[in-house]
Design a protein that fits this description.
Radius of gyration: 17 Å
Number of strands: 8
Shape: globular
Structural class: alpha+beta
Distance between the termini: 11 Å
Order of helices and strands: EHEHEEEEEHE
Largest sheet: 8 strands, mixed
Helix content: 10-25%
C-alpha cells in the first residue's frame, strides 16, 4: 500500500475530509496522515485562551545546518474538539496546535482590528496576537509538525506520496 500524506491550508479544514483521512476510509491509501490549517472560530479562540503562558513554546527557523534563529511566533497544543469531530471511544485522535505572533504597532489599527485580513485575539494582559491553527493526526513533535505543514505553502492542498 502506498503511503500518502496531506498538507492543506484552511480550505481543507472540512470535518468530513479529516474523518475520511483519519479513519482510513480510502481503501487505496488507508490512513492518510495530515496537517491542515484550522478555521480560527470563536470556539477555537476560547480554547486558545485557556492555554497557560508557560505552555507556549518559541518557534525557530532553521537558517543552515544546525543553525536556528528564534522567530516572533510561539506555538502550543490546544485542547479543542469541534462539535463536528466529537470523539468516539474508538475514533481517531486529532491534535490541534495554535500559533501566535504578537502584533507590533497596534496603535496603527486599534480602531479597525476587525478589518485585519487575519484572525487576532487579545491575550490577557499580553496584548493582541495574530492567531493561526493546525489540526493533525501525525505524531511529530509540535514544532516539527508546523515546519512540515509549511513546507509546501506555495502549493496548498498537496497530497504527498512517501
Amino acid at each position: 500500500m502506498e503511503k500518502v500524506f496531506l498538507r492543506s491550508d484552511t480550505a481543507g479544514y472540512q470535518h468530513e475530509l479529516l474523518q475520511d483521512c483519519a479513519e482510513a476510509k480510502n481503501e487505496r491509501f488507508g490512513v492518510i496522515e495530515f496537517a491542515i490549517g484550522v478555521d480560527v472560530t470563536p470556539a477555537f479562540k476560547e480554547a486558545v485562551a485557556t492555554v497557560s503562558e508557560n505552555q507556549w513554546q518559541p518557534l525557530y527557523d532553521e537558517i543552515g545546518p544546525g543553525q536556528k534563529i528564534k522567530t516572533s511566533q510561539e506555538w502550543a497544543e490546544v485542547c479543542f474538539v469541534p462539535e463536528g469531530l466529537a470523539h468516539k471511544k474508538t475514533g481517531p485522535d486529532y491534535r490541534f496546535l495554535a500559533i501566535r505572533e504578537a502584533l507590533e504597532q497596534t496603535e496603527l489599527f486599534e480602531q479597525d482590528v476587525q478589518q485585519l485580513p487575519f484572525p487576532t485575539m487579545e491575550m490577557k494582559s499580553l496584548g493582541r496576537y495574530k492567531i493561526f491553527g493546525v489540526v493533525t493526526n501525525k505524531t511529530l513533535p509540535g514544532e516539527e509538525l508546523i515546519h512540515w505543514h509549511r513546507l509546501c505553502a506555495a502549493k496548498a492542498n498537496t497530497l504527498i506520496p512517501s
